[in-house]
Design the sequence.
């Protein structure tokens, strides 16, 4: 594994850290984000069934198109309504 | 009740564990009391003194530390394999064999190589190696081997790099990763690992945390360390580093105006011209193809300054760099003056430096253009050829705004040398020959809209300002050519050349 010294002025972050992962899903709201690839919804429907069986709250979201990043408003809505999010594609 | 066999195996276990505890004792800080001998199997003197080690093991409390294998010397039971060279590095072992006496965890004495009298004195054991020669020099310790010393300094030293460490993922190709992070000029770079940067820093006596300059366009403070990192990436050798540092000092001045030079739509770049003995010492090219490819020092020093502007300064094409065309000079442009057979004193003397001083001149220039004159054998004729070519820089009808470097090759400089023309005389004559009447240069004259304002029609207009023509001797010994490096906008609104000393 190569380790190098940063040649830049270090004004940009080297990496964006992931959010902390919860130890358990109990009591959390799970967002399911469909990126609009065909049949992704069928996969997420099944995930939703399984999560509801476990007594979790589920919110569904959908990107307008898979070719572009999710719009800021959609990301904000997910972040506001959900504790965790599952983004899925199926093809 | 413990069975006798179990007892035996238990005692063996205890013995073994004692033995193991000696084998694995951490000697990086404190050495075991008694005598410690550091050897390597790949050393004839160490081979020679194995009988002495056996004598000492019997007569005294001896620990043998072997640098290169765990089986040497077979005759010694209390062996320690210094596999990672931690012990050797921490105790600054430079030669094998080294014999150290230790008391209370502290070194009290050491001797290097084999010398019977020294070993007897240090160990207090007499009659050592009576069949051996009186003395033999040792070999170099593995911990100071040139291939190892920086690696070990990084591993064990109080590594004080201020720069962020960035680790590539196991599946990332490090060369691709360097491109992906936007740190290259489009060509591959050498990954700036800590040991390479440490080696690079050995090329200067300056402290790695010294801020050399504030680099535009981000106005980021640039330390010697950041320069070294980018110099590694550019492919420089450590001995080039003082020149790269000098280049950073020169271009990051108000006078040179690196920010403007970067941001301009014009194609110009820092052109670095080196004078003084350092050029030959590090193998720079001032001869054949001096302005081209193929010489490591020329190519990588010029490239290093560009990488520093990009990475430390944050100046990238398409962002702050708005050059319409760019130029091969923007990859890196650095060469040395051909001093040894120049008819003139070094170019640096025109900036007040003594001949023989190591200097760097930064000039805001474009890629070179060749100039042919194969027939002139007198200086006046050749000066006229220079003038005829020089007036076309940027536009024949634009004057005073642009300097130029005129690189004169030996076949051309000889004409002036034989006629006894000094550099000053040649410059003066060319300035005179490139002075023209305003009426020919005003807007519309010659059917060309571009030109000087109508108000200047009655003036005599020189192409160059008084100090605007810089003559440098370089190029291969064959070829009746010279080369022109046209300048960017000069003076207050543009750039003035900056000449700085190169210091170790």
Sequence:
């Amino acid at each position: 594994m190569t380790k190098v010294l940063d040649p830049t002025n270090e004004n940009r972050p080297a990496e964006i850290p992931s959010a902390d992962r919860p130890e358990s899903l109990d009591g959390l709201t799970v967002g399911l984000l469909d990126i609009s690839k065909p049949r992704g919804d069928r996969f997420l429907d099944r995930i939703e069934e399984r999560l509801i069986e476990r007594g979790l709250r589920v919110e569904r979201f959908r990107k307008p198109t898979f070719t572009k990043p999710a719009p800021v408003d959609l990301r904000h809505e997910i972040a506001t309504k959900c504790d965790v999010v599952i983004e899925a594609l199926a093809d | 009740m413990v069975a006798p066999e179990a007892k035996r195996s238990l005692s063996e276990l205890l013995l073994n564990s004692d033995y193991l505890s000696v084998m694995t004792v951490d000697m990086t800080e404190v050495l075991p009391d008694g005598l410690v001998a550091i050897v390597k199997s790949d050393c004839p003197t160490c081979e020679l003194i194995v009988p002495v080690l056996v004598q000492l093991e019997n007569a005294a409390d001896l620990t043998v530390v072997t640098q290169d294998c765990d089986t040497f010397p077979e005759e010694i039971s209390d062996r320690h394999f210094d596999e990672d060279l931690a012990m050797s590095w921490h105790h600054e072992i430079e030669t094998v064999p080294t014999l150290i006496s230790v008391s209370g965890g502290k070194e009290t004495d050491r001797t290097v190589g084999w010398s019977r009298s020294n070993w007897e004195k240090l160990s207090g054991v007499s009659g050592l190696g009576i069949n051996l020669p009186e003395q033999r020099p040792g070999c170099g310790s593995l911990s100071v081997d040139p291939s190892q010393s920086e690696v070990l300094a990084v591993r064990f030293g109080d590594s004080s790099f201020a720069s962020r460490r960035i680790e590539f993922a196991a599946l990332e190709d490090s060369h691709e990763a360097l491109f992906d992070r936007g740190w290259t000029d489009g060509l591959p770079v050498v990954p700036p690992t800590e040991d390479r940067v440490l080696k690079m820093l050995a090329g200067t006596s300056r402290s790695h945390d010294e801020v050399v300059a504030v680099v535009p366009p981000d106005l980021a403070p640039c330390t010697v360390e950041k320069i070294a990192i980018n110099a590694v990436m550019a492919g420089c050798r450590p001995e080039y580093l003082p020149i790269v540092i000098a280049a950073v000092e020169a271009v990051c001045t108000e006078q040179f105006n690196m920010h403007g030079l970067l941001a301009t739509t014009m194609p110009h770049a820092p052109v670095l011209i080196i004078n003084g003995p350092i050029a030959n010492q590090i193998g720079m090219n001032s001869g054949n193809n001096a302005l081209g490819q193929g010489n490591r020092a020329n190519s990588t020093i010029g490239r290093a300054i560009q990488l520093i502007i990009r990475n430390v300064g944050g100046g990238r094409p398409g962002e702050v760099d708005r050059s319409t065309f760019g130029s091969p000079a923007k990859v890196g442009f650095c060469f040395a003056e051909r001093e040894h057979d120049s008819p003139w004193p070094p170019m640096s003397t025109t900036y007040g430096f003594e001949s023989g001083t190591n200097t760097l001149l930064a000039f805001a220039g474009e890629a070179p253009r060749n100039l042919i004159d194969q027939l002139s054998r007198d200086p006046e004729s050749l000066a006229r050829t220079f003038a005829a070519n020089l007036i076309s820089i940027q536009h024949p009808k634009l004057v005073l705004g642009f300097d130029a470097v005129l690189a004169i090759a030996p076949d051309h400089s000889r004409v002036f040398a034989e006629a006894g023309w000094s550099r000053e005389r040649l410059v003066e004559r060319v300035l005179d020959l490139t002075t023209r009447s305003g009426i020919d240069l005003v807007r519309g004259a010659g059917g060309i809209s571009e030109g000087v304002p109508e108000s200047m029609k009655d003036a005599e207009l020189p192409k160059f300002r008084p100090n605007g023509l810089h003559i440098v001797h370089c190029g291969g010994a064959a070829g009746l050519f010279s080369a022109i490096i046209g300048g960017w906008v000069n003076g207050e609104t543009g750039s003035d050349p900056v000449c700085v000393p190169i210091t170790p």
In short: DSSP finds 16 helices and 22 strands in chain B. Chain B touches chain A through 33 residues (CB under 8 Å). The first strand of chain B starts at residue 34 and ends at 39.
